[in-house]
Amino acid sequence: MSARRIFLDRSVGETRGVVTLDGRPERLILRRDDDDPRLQLGARLVARVENVEPALATAFLDLGGGQKAILPFKPDQRPVRGAAVEVDIRGEPRAGKLATARLIGAGEGAPRLLQPPPDVGDILTTLVRDAALVEGRAARAAADEAEAEALEAVFPLPGGGSVAIEPTRALTAIDVDLGERKGADAKRAARAGNLAALSEAARLLRLKSLGGLVIVDLVGRGHDGAALMAAARQAFGPDNPGVAIGPVGRFGTMEISIPRRTRPLSERLADARGALTDRTLAQRLVRRLEDEAAAQPGARLAAACAPDVAAAATPLIRALADRFGARFDLRPDPAHPRERFDVARS
Question: Which fold has domain 270-345?
């Protein structure tokens, strides 16, 4: 039976929650202190209907504070322009896409937040009800590992071979590579590799917070469709409700549709080019300083880093000083590599 554990890492400016499956990261929930709660999964709001597009069965909502969302509707639930409605957020915004809301009923008054989204700890204990919540050093290590793996593209499979995950604007492509996987014969090795790939792909898509249409390019020919369908249903069971799985097609691919709920982690951690953002690097620097401050009580610490990272880290360092005292010096250096920090006693 698969075993899941949950970890909560609290840091200045950011909270990370991790679910592991058999010791490997399965989910990473990331919240930053300046995130707008109106756009987070589970938030409940009063919104104003700004526009209605009957041809698209979609209404555009004003959530207040300059934030927008879309509201898909059924023909018999068409909202009225200008009306106040009560909604909750069912899909967080992602690149080029607005948040998606679900209609609860009629609302009253101006757009506003009625109920904030659940916090990271509550999400974790809802996902895994029978596990103790782990904090401290173990949680930080688990979150660091999950963050690093979420940013990778190619992953080894148990027994050999690999699976590559590449999101595009339209869909997420998953390529299964047999590599030098050993087996009694090629067909048996391909079958074992495909079954392992479906299990790993499900875990990794949850870790990366990827949804929508997924195309899995399987290896080999003459696939055992029934076995692969059963394996896919089991692997993607935790993503229900809303998962749809198609049979293996004539070209050896399997199509899977997964509800989009949370913003892809790559958009939180990296820019459009795939480089880590200044804020992500600033959070890593702050965690490093937190660890050093705890290990060296009273010591004054200096951190050398790239200027843009220093600028992003400055407000976080102020908050860190409130916790540990004013004993941190940021030293911006234009010659410093962006992803490297040098922390030492000053």
Answer: Hypothetical Protein Ychn; Chain: A, (3.40.1260)
